[in-house]
Design a protein that fits this description.
This protein is an alpha+beta fold. Helix content is about 30%, strand content about 25%. It contains 7 helices and 17 strands. Helix 2 packs antiparallel against helix 3 and helix 4 crosses helix 7. The protein binds 6-O-phosphono-alpha-D-fructofuranose. The site of 6-O-phosphono-alpha-D-fructofuranose has 10 residues, from loops.
Amino acid sequence: MSQRISLTRYLVEQQREHGNIPSELRLLLEVVARACKSISQAVSKGDLTGILGVAGSENVQGEVQKQLDIIANEVLIEANEWGGHLAAMASEEMEAIHVVPNRYPQGEYLLMFDPLDGSSNIDVNVSIGTIFSVFKKPEGGHAVTEQDFLQKGREQVAAGYCLYGPQTTLVLTVGAGVVMFTLDREQGSFVLIKENVQVPVDTQEFAINMSNMRHWAEPVKRYVDECLQGTEGPRGKNFNMRWVASMVADVHRILTRGGVFMYPWDQREPHKAGKLRLLYEANPMGWLIEQAGGVATNGQQRILDLQPTALHERVSVFLGSKNEVDRVTRYHAGL
Ligand code: P6P
């Protein structure tokens, strides 16, 4: 069997070769990975520990919180606040940013995360995941504020997710391509399984929640309708559909075999740009997809070029195989 390379060894060797993973960033990524191992452990026990089901509270999004949402959030906060690598954190589960307490040294990085994405799937044993995004704290020596988090996705220094599925798999980029690690539970460490992940530029598989079809804007209806027409329609080929309702699982499938993921604006809540959050869902996933040769837009422009104006800002998302995302984006331009 080829030599097994751990996450730590990979990060150290990447720093040696590319110089893009300073020790503080490597420490941060290793801490996040350790937190994901703990979350994976909690998720895998499910009913055995009575932590499934609702927590009896709502998050800032107005969504019912599951016990595991709160547990995962606390694991990430507690794991990251003492290490000296972070100035502050932001989470889907917290309205305001969490500044590293004065009893700990503050570092130069900002960490954002959706601690447990896809939580509607927790109680039915379907894959869920943790999504994270890392920025540098802007220069200036000032006290960190929410404003420091409102950076364009192209400024990220690291991004990734941990998928809690049949395997627990950590997927990561620091701007030199996408790598995948699977948790070896016997060793208790993440082991490198794939480097230089590439999203095929073409696909015959799309991911969207079809129950919302009547609410979509015309360009989305046109794109999906053409896919459904198959070989008899303008696309001249048949398409398959997948929708896990866990973005992490759908994106992992696309990174693995191609596809196009869509969560567009729709008329149900017309004042909202979309359902998914820009800072800790669309930006990290968009960067991973781009680093693997795919495309990520909001229908009009590149996700990573969007200037955030609020911590929990929502956005319309089209990402995956280049030729398909280019097509649906063209349709939004009336082309
Ligand atoms: P719907 C999970 O709640 C999530 O934020 C994403 O992970 C997922 O892609 C989407 O929402 C599912 O939304 O409306 O199909 O339940």
